[in-house]
Amino acid sequence: xxxIIYCRVSTQKSSQETSLTRQKHELTALAERYQMxxxxxxxxxxxxxxxxxxxxxxxxDLFSEHKADCLLIQDETRLGRGNTKIxxxxxxxxxxxxxYTAIHDGKLxxxxxxxxxxxxxxxVEEYQRRIHNMKIKRGMKRAVEQGYEPAKNLKNIEHAPGRxxxxxxxxxxxxxxxxxxxxxxxxxxxxxxGFHVSKATVHRRxxxxxxx
Length: 212
Hints:
Blueprint: E1 2-9, H1 17-33, E2 37-45, H2 54-64, E3 70-73, H3 76-79, H4 82-94, E4 98-101, E5 106-107, H5 112-145, H6 150-153, H7 170-178, H8 183-192, H9 199-211
Parallel strand pairs: 1-2, 1-3, 3-4
Antiparallel strand pairs: 4-5
């Protein structure tokens, strides 16, 4: 198993250096006991309530790139505190990352209250995804009912996904707008067709078109 060791203290005081050293020593020993291959050791001096930490970004990148599959921390507060801790727990769970702690001398034992919050966050996220998909289907259905024909009007759609530039057929935006669709419905319709664009961008391009 490939692991990342994450050590954190909350202040820049020199006295905290001993805490970082102790954390690193304990977690290195933990990795050895579980025969883990340590990919990286990340040390950080920052508040646990702050989610914008370079060390956190680095470990999430490493996990997203599948360079490690386990996180070692002294205890859950080293990863974060309050809402930041919950957010990071949720993100790591989505990435299927195992968490081991020195205080448990093994896998992290999430408290009952944190476990309940994580379940609620997961349910909310799932319903947000369903609502988003429903909005896309609704926008598509309304557009088709208004006479919109994607196969006829959108060319080269197979090249649309993954574009870095916000390119989309403005003529179709104009046409759908004339059929009384809202900018949100137009945006969800275009997203359903592979054009990743926001309502604000659609609205802005629509204004630009009429101002030229």
